[in-house]
């Protein structure tokens, strides 16, 4: 029984470490627009694409597609939707991610938080 419990705990710890070490997954997103023009909610999915990540936000029916680089500690993403482009930078926060973003040419940044689904 002890060995079964130990094996279960080891598997749980390994999966928790892998879970926190990689941004791949699905998230609920909450954020604000630069300059204080409103708050938003939506979803974000992150998938590994070689040495980069594909990041897709769906906010208010609009889809934003980004390319990210990073590791278990940070993720930098450039994104595009129609003529809108921008940049975001996130830090790992347990299994979640939090950061800031702006539009291309922007002078203000705004917060965004991803909570793992």
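Sequence proposed for the structure above (117 residues):
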């Amino acid at each position: 029984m002890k060995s079964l419990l130990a094996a279960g705990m080891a598997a749980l710890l390994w999966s928790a470490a892998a879970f926190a070490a990689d941004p791949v997954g699905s998230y609920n997103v909450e954020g604000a627009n630069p300059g204080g023009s409103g708050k938003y909610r939506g979803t974000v999915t992150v998938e590994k694409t070689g040495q980069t990540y594909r990041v897709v936000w769906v906010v208010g029916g609009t889809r934003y597609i980004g390319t990210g680089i990073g590791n278990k500690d940070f993720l930098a993403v450039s994104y595009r939707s129609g003529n809108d482009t921008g940049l975001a930078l996130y830090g790992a926060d347990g299994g979640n991610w939090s950061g800031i973003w702006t539009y291309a040419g922007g002078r203000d940044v705004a917060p965004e938080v991803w909570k793992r689904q």
